[in-house]
Specification:
Layout (H helix, E strand, L loop, with lengths): L14 H8 L3 H10 L16 H15 L4 H10 L19 E6 L2 E5 L1 H4 L3 H23 L1
Antiparallel strand pairs: 1-2
Amino acid sequence: MTVIKNATPSNDLSLEQLCVLVDLPRRTVRYYIQLGLVDRPEGETRAARYTQAHVEQLLNVKKWTLAGLSLDRIREMKDAGPEPALPLPTRRPGSVEVWTHLLVDEGVELKIEPKRAGLSPEQVRHLMRRVLDALQQIKKEQTE
């Protein structure tokens, strides 16, 4: 966990503090601001201050770039309105998908494409445990 020292009472951050929080280099943050993907800071040069809104904008840009979106597409999404959802990749013949397949019981299967479902590996494991527990509970209720 990163500790930010010397933040002002209003929770304004310096560029250095912002970069530590979002795990991006200063050059990248400045580039995203230049492109209009992130709002300009309050003040200029060393007096520039960043807020929680900047943190959220940068984390969203980071999330979208990791999902494979171009910076142009991210700018279009930002201009389109508040907090757009990640567009699902186009499915077409020949595309490769990784599915998680759980045989729950005879005749019961669960298939998940984690990326399209927006689930992390831990969330997929949690879902599978819950499905297995739910089936056991249903079977238990039938025998009572």
